[in-house]
From TrEMBL:
Keywords attached to this entry: DNA-binding, Transcription, Transcription regulation
Name of the protein: TetR family transcriptional regulator
GO molecular function, one term: DNA binding
Organism the protein comes from: Sphaerisporangium rufum
DNA-binding region: 10-29
Domain HTH tetR-type: 1-47
Alphabetical list of PANTHER family matching this protein: HTH-TYPE TRANSCRIPTIONAL REPRESSOR NEMR (PTHR47506:SF6), TRANSCRIPTIONAL REGULATORY PROTEIN (PTHR47506)
Length: 180
């Protein structure tokens, strides 16, 4: 999946990589689409763990939790040599136009993913650490979309510069404290 992408990887490729007979696939999944949905669920379970460790870390202030999340993802991407990116982003590009079930699951994932970002942003505003401006939900959507774009550019350039630029712009301009 990471090497070929969901669309290009055939069932034969998937079973060969798993070292199982091709018939085993149909015993577990009714279709390749059902397999894609399961992959998304498992991948996002890992994202939830990362969210719990960063965006919902009770010992960090809200904006520091956001930075910790982006730092943790950047570290994971570095371990992969700036290849592959985010499976949710990859599947969004590959499959949202071709599978209504996958598109709907991706939409639900993004909606859930936005919530801990919005919570951090609302808490930062309540603490006086963030200037008034866009609603936390809108700002959270903006951050997720921009982050996904930075990951896409990272994949193309095979370089962390787009991720570094994202965090620099977000934390020095977008998420600025209120004037004193």
């Amino acid at each position: 999946m990471r090497r070929k992408g969901f669309t290009a990887a055939g069932v034969r490729d998937i079973t060969a990589a798993a070292g199982v007979p091709q018939g085993s696939f149909t015993n577990h999944f009714t279709s390749k689409e059902a397999f894609g949905l399961e992959i998304l669920d498992r991948y996002f379970a890992d994202v939830r763990d990362l969210i719990a460790a960063t965006l919902r870390a009770p010992d960090l202030p809200p904006l520091r939790r956001l930075a910790a999340y982006f730092d943790a993802v950047t570290a994971r991407l570095a371990e992969r040599g700036w290849h592959h990116g985010c499976l949710v982003g990859n599947m969004s590009l590959e499959s949202a136009e071709h599978s209504e079930a996958i598109r709907a699951r991706l939409a639900a994932i993004f909606a859930e993913w936005r919530e801990p970002f919005a919570e951090c942003l609302a808490q930062a505003r309540e603490r006086g650490e963030l200037a008034d401006g866009a609603a936390p939900d809108d700002l959270a959507d903006f951050l997720l979309s921009s982050w996904q774009g930075a990951i896409l550019r990272m994949k193309v350039e095979r370089d962390p510069a787009p991720l570094e630029r994202f965090t620099r712009v977000v934390f020095t301009g977008v998420l600025r404290p209120p004037p004193r």
